Each structure stands twice: as C-alpha cells, then as structure tokens.
Recover the amino acids of this structure.
C-alpha cells in the first residue's frame, strides 16, 4: 500500500464520529441503532487494521509462507460481529415494543408522552385525599 | 465513507437500512484486502444479509419515515468534531499500517502462528485460536448470543408451533423469485455445511456456518411466505436447539474436567493429543454453529411473526 500508513486510522475515526453523531443528534430510535452499527463497524476496521502485517498472508498455514497477519484480532472481531447482530436484534426488539406502547419511535414524542403521563399520575393523590375528607 | 454520510442525511429509513447493508458489504471487501478472510466472511453474511433483514422486519412493525429533526445539529456536531480531532491527534503516535514491529505482533501472536498448526493440528490459525487457545472467550460469546436470543423472545413473546401465520406473504406471488430461490437454497445450505466442516483448513467455522444456514431459511421464508419456514423448523425446536448448542460446548469442557485436565482442554478426548484437539474443536464449533443458527432464525421469527399494531 502506497497510501500514508495512518490513512486507515483516519477513516476509522471519521466513521466512528459519523456513528457517534447519529447516536447523539438523531431522534429516531431505528436510526440511532444504525448509528451504533456504523460505530461498531469502525471499531472492527480498527482491529483488523492493527492486525495487518505488510507482506503477510492470510493466517492459514501453507507450506513455504513464513509471514502471516496476526490471527488474534481476527478471532476477536469474528465473534464480535456475531455478538453485534444479536445485540442489535435485542435493540430492535426493544424499539418494536416501544412503538407498540407509545405509537412512536421518535425520542421527543416519547418524552413528551412521558411528561404528560407524569402530570396525570401526580394528580390522583390529591383527589384521593379529597375523597378521604368526604 | 460517502455511504455513511448518505445514511445520516436520508430520512427514508428503508433507504437508510439498505445503505447500511451496502456499507457492511464494502467493509467486508476491506477486511478481505487486509488479509482477514474469516472476518470478511462473517461480515458479509451477517452485516449485509441478516442485519438488513432484521432491521427491515423491525421497520415493518414501526414506521418507515423519520420526522423532521427538531434540534439544532450544531452542538452534537461540535462535540463530534472535538472528539474526532482528539482521536486523530492520538493516531499520530500509532504504528503504521502493516508494520511488523508494532506492539500487537510481539506478545502472544507469534506463538499462535508458530506452534498453532502443530499443537492443534489444523492450518487455519483463526479457528485454532478461536476454539482452542481462546476457548473460554468463545464459550462466553456463545452464551452472550444465547442470552440475546432469550431477551428478544422475552420482549416479543414466544410463538409455539408452525401454524402461526400460514399463507401470509410479504412480497406477493413472484414466480421468477420462487424458481431462483428454490435452486439457490440447497446450494446455500450445502455451502453452510462446507464452511462449517472446512473451517479447520480454510476460512470458515461455526459462526459463519450458523449465519449462512440461518440466511438460507430466512430467504425461504421471505419468498415463500411466512409460515413456510416455520413448517420446516418450528420455533419451539429452535429454542431447544439453541440450548443444545451451548450444552455441547459446555459438555466438551466438562468431559475434559472429568478426565482430570483443565476446562476445555481437548487433548484428552482421544489417545493422540493432536487428534483430541481436532475432535474438540470440531465439537465446539458444532455447538457454536447450532446456537448461532437457531438464535438468528428465532430472532427473525420473533420479529417477522409479530403483527403490525394499528
């Protein structure tokens, strides 16, 4: 590779920040999960970049090859990807349940509904005490 | 990078999810370029295949369009820029790409590379490290996947039996698709088996095989209508299979414990230690494959089987 050696890290940082931006700025919960996915994939790229040895072959032993890329990051990321899809699925399941409970997947609307419910639930003790007086 | 930006800008969540799939596929190509063949495999099957389908099922249950953003994007943008600048500054000290003298390559990796093929008796070092040297980690990860499947089922409810929604079909009656898919599915399943049992020698293993197998069934279910795949493998079987996979993995560890060796030490499984390692890795990968397959498929069932609330 003739590119500067740090180029991959900069791509990783850019993608990571893109994912981070989506997570903190967007109100839609599904989109937040996509942002988390972007962030996650950038970490994967970081690990694989670290494991690369220039001139090395893929870590499968073949006669006559002496230099291999580091297999350890590959193992870590391999399992992390599958764990990642499982945790994303848990997130999606939560989003589906939130939608069923609130009728929305927008953070602001959900928050507004929560506030309204809090106002309602603060009222009853008041009326109960009035009932008690009577 | 461009795809990531587009994914942020678009408000049509359907397009966002599709772009995310393309992004995953490109990432897989990048991994291939960086010599990580096993990882590229997994990313292509998981990121571009399964995650996209799961996200689309979730979108079907919620809403396709996102609302107009109401907040000012400047503050998050500022935070992100500052964090990014700090990270870029940190990379200036990082080792260059492909530098063989970087700290990561000094510690345990040389031993895995030099001794792995002899001690474990298989050329694919990734599989050797995954299932033998780092068997504890992989066991933990299998349990995490199992737990995630459990959590999804607790959240979305368990459907028993194959007759949940017979005959409903998401994309209508497409003859061309049906014929093509009918030809493809045996190939996908065969390929899954190949990837599983060839994982010792080439790229592949239990994680990839489980996902590829599940993707085959997901495809079948998508094209032939919901309820069809459920008739082949009912959800209640899947729950038992997921537990069985973890049990196989843990069981191999217990067997080596009973023989007086540490947990997950496979060299006692046969008379010859290398042969024992081979057998142990094969069994453990089988456990992983079964768990991953059944968890991914039952998550898909749970998401797709839930009716849209009006």
């Amino acid at each position: 590779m003739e590119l500067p050696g740090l180029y991959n890290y900069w791509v990783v940082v850019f993608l990571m920040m893109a994912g981070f931006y989506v997570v903190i700025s967007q109100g839609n919960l599904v989109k937040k999960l996509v942002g988390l996915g972007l962030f996650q994939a950038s970490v994967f790229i970081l690990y694989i970049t670290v494991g690369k040895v220039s001139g090395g072959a893929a870590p499968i032993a073949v006669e006559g090859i002496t230099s291999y890329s580091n297999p350890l990051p590959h193992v870590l990321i391999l399992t992390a990807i599958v764990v990642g899809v499982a945790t994303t699925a848990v997130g999606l399941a939560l989003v589906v349940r939130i939608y069923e409970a609130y009728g929305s997947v927008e953070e602001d609307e959900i928050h507004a509904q929560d506030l309204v419910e809090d106002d309602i639930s603060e009222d009853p003790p008041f009326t109960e005490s009035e009932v008690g007086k009577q | 990078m461009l795809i990531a930006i587009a994914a942020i800008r678009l408000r049509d969540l359907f397009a966002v999810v599709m772009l995310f799939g393309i992004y995953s596929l490109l990432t897989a190509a990048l991994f291939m370029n960086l010599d990580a063949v096993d990882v590229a495999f997994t990313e292509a099957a998981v990121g571009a295949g399964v995650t996209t389908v799961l996200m689309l099922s979730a979108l079907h249950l919620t809403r396709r369009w996102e609302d107009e953003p109401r907040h000012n994007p400047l503050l998050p943008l500022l935070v992100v820029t500052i964090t990014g600048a700090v990270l870029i500054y940190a990379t200036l000290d990082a080792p260059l790409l492909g530098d063989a003298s970087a700290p990561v390559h000094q510690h345990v990796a040389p031993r895995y590379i030099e001794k792995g093929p002899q001690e474990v008796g298989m050329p694919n070092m990734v599989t050797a490290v995954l299932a033998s040297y780092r068997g504890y980690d992989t066991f933990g990860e299998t349990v995490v996947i199992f737990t995630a499947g459990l959590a999804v089922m607790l959240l979305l409810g368990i459907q028993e039996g194959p007759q949940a929604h017979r005959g409903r079909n998401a994309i209508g009656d497409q003859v061309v698709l049906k014929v093509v898919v009918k030809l493809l599915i045996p190939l996908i399943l065969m390929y899954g088996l190949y990837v599983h049992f060839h994982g010792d020698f080439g790229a592949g293993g239990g994680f990839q095989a489980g996902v590829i197998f599940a993707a085959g069934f997901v495809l079948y279910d998508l094209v032939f209508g919901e309820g069809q795949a459920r008739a082949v493998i009912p959800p209640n079987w899947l729950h038992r299979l997921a537990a069985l996979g973890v049990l196989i993995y843990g069981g191999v560890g217990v067997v080596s414990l009973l023989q007086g060796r540490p947990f997950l030490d496979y060299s006692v499984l046969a008379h010859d230690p290398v042969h024992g390692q081979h057998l142990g890795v094969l069994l453990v990968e089988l456990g992983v494959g079964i768990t991953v397959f059944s968890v991914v498929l039952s998550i898909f069932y749970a998401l797709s089987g839930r009716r849209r609330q009006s």
Observations:
- Chain B touches chain A through 101 residues (CB under 8 Å).
